[in-house]
Amino acid sequence: MNLDEIVKYINDDSARGELAREFQGIISDYQAGTISAEEKNELVEAVVAGFKAAKASSDEETMRWAVQIATVVTSLV
Question: Among residues 58, 72, 65, which one has the least CA distance to residue 18?
């Protein structure tokens, strides 16, 4: 899994699309230097936690995708 998965769903009208847009925003802020690596990781964790708390988390496949993408995003240096 890599960042292409985010791009793949960025315009999708689904839970994956919403997550992809959230993660892309975090990546953009991090790459622009407006947030630190620690803040990036905290935001990623918050997005995943929010998704888990929402009804959308009942979609197991999307939940696994979100966790995998979150792992990729937090590994960005």
Answer: 65
Classify burial at 73, counting beta carbons within 10 Å of its beta carbon; exposed 0-12, middle 13-18, buried 19 or more: buried
Query: Rounded CA gap, 4 and 69, in Å?
Result: 10
Does this model's pTM top 0.90? My answer is: no
CA-angle at 29, arms to 32 and 17, nearest 5°: 135
Contact 32, 21 (CB under 8 A): no
* Per-residue pLDDT tens digits for 21-66: 999 999 999 999 999 999 999 999 999 998 888 765 567 888 888 8
